[in-house]
Fold this protein.
Amino acid sequence: MTPEEFKELRRQEARQTIQAMGLKMTAKPNGLIHIHGRGLDVTVRDLASLQESDFRGAW
């Protein structure tokens, strides 16, 4: 698996987690991605950089 394939897999997993938890994902004009809802408020440049621990704040 190439590094780019691994990143894409991580992005897909993050999208599934966001959807399963009922969180909202908003793309900002500057290219950042804002994930919010259920007590969570995170802004990232790439979904592949999200870790499971980033979702612990959502109840």
Observations:
- The chain has one domain: 3-55.
- The mean pLDDT is 93.
- The helical segments are 3-21.
- Strands lie at 24-27, 33-37, 40-44.
